Structures are given as C-alpha cells and as structure tokens.
C-alpha cells in the first residue's frame, strides 16, 4: 500500500466530499489535484488492499474503518449542504440525548412586545415569559449492505471504490427520504392563509405568500427543479436575460428579489416512477425563522461483514439518526402546483418525533 492508512482514509473523505462535475482543484497532502486524479488514485489504492480475495481477507478491517469514517464525516456534511437552510443538523455522541433548543414562537414574541411599557414609580416591571422549549429527537438505526460475489472476486471484477460509494450514497438517500417526508408533513400544520394551491403556477398567489413571509424576514423559496421550471413571468414581462437564464439552467434563480433554492430529488424505485421529494410543493421560509426540520446523528457508524452460504459477502453498515419537526413559524408558507403531483406514492407516511402539540405520525 503506497499510502499509509490514515492518508488513505483522508483521501477517501476528500473524494467523497468533492463534486465530480466541478472544474476545481482539491487539496490533498498540501498539493492540488483534480477530482478525476483523486478518484483514480483512490481506486488504485483500494485495489492494492482489496483487489483480490486474499488481499480483501488480509485488509478488510482497514476497509471497514475507512467506510465508517467516511460515513461519519461526509454524511452530515452532505445533508447540511443540501438542507441546512431550513434544517437544523447536529451530531451527538453515542448515548447523549439529541436535544434541540427551539426558539420562542412569533406569536409569543408579538405578545411580549405588548408588555414593553414605561416603568412604574415603584420600579415594577410587567414580566412576560417566552414559550421557547427543548425538543428531543430520538434516533433509530439505519443500515444497508453491498453484496460481493465470490466469483466476482476471483474474476477480478470488484472495484471496492464503487462499494464505498454505494454504501455512502445509500445512507444519504435514507436521510433525504426522511427529510422529504418531514417537509411534506409540515403542510398540514401551516395556517390556511399561508397556503395556496392551483393546477398551474399563478404569480399573484405566490406574490401574496411572499408578502406574508417577508413580514417575518426576507423569504427564500425552496422547491425542486420541476417546480422552479414553472416559475416563469408572464410573456409581457420576461426579459432577454431571463430567457437566457432559462435556456442555460432551466429555471430562474431569483423570483422578484427572492432567492430560489433547488431541493435535490431522486426516485424510490429503479423504474423511475416514484419520486422521493414531492415536486408539487414550494416552501417559502423567512430568514431568521426557527428551522422546522431537526436532524440528529448519533454515535459512530459501524461496518461488518456477513458471509453467505455461497461464499458471497455482504458489507453491512449501521448508522443512527432521527428526524423531527417543530411548531412552525407563523411566516412559513407553502404553494402547491397540483399539476406536478404525478410520481408520488400517497402511502408513504412515516414521519416521527413530533414536537409538543403535533401528531407524531403524519400522512
């Protein structure tokens, strides 16, 4: 093995964090490399330690430690990058209670303002208690496995870098799927005045929601690419610059002064028929609003090997995380374009760990 174990693990983390489509250089051991250079090096190094059955048997614990450390460092970072704007994401030590402090509600703050008065002659102040609280988000064990056929090893058809990538991506998808369910469950808790629905994108309805949200802080629009592509100004208002942006990116990254953030989406099935994130919803969230989604990672990832009767092996992973939702800020709004609901399974209902006053399972 050309690289020492810790350098190999660092290389694996660097590759896992990097964007393969970005034309940038990444730092490794004080030098700059392209993504393809780092990826090729990682594949070569993993082939050196696990490219044959004999090598795998000798070095599998190094491989397991590499996978564990990649999951523990990269998984929370990926979730933060994708959902950090509206999800509070934290990592807790094994056995520690995942406790989140929830800010006082806007209604509580509004009531408190009424008590800002002149001090009486006796120096007596009226006291108002804000209703902030703490929320515990219980975690559950999640896992996945990548199977390696014994004959594939003998034939030299195993690329261990692909195994590492599949395991990491599989856990990512688990977290994304639960966040998508939690987001959709929030809709039922939002006030009617903060919701709009139509079978197409209607500017006036979106504008009305933005006015409500902006009263609590400058709003940002979060939606899938599919929804964003429908947010096009009327023909009489669209500029040449906007036309170019639509042609180059497929959507407008700014809507009347409000940033549009694209939420990643994928499919539940290999036939590409059931989507993870419901594309019909756009979430309008004011700056400064308490983040409605809480994500807790607990403890370290664990990896083990399971040998089947046919000598094939499964590399199994174990990681604990939980998703919670809290009482919603009065400025959060939702727009639904019902024309985009195709490809959503209405029976996907599992959302847990609700805050006080909310049903712990939502449709």
Entry summary:
The chain is α+β, with helices and mostly antiparallel strands.
Biggest beta sheet summary: 6 strands, mixed
What is the CA-atom radius of gyration, in angstroms?
A: 24 Å
CATH-level-4 superfamily name of the largest domain: phage-related protein like domain
> What is the count of distinct domains?
2
What do the pLDDT scores average to?
Answer: 80
CATH topology of the largest domain: phage-related protein like fold
- Helical residue percent? 25-40%
Question: What is the global morphology?
Answer: globular
- Indicate the multimeric state: single chain
Structure explained in plain terms:
The protein is of the alpha+beta class and 363 residues long. The chain folds into two domains: 70 residues, no CATH class; 207 residues, Alpha-Beta Complex (phage-related protein like fold). Helices cover 35% and strands 24% of the residues. The longest helix has 31 residues. The radius of gyration is 24 Å and the shape is globular.
Feature tags:
single chain, alpha+beta, phage-related protein like fold, four-stranded mixed sheet, 14 strands, 24% strand, disordered C terminus
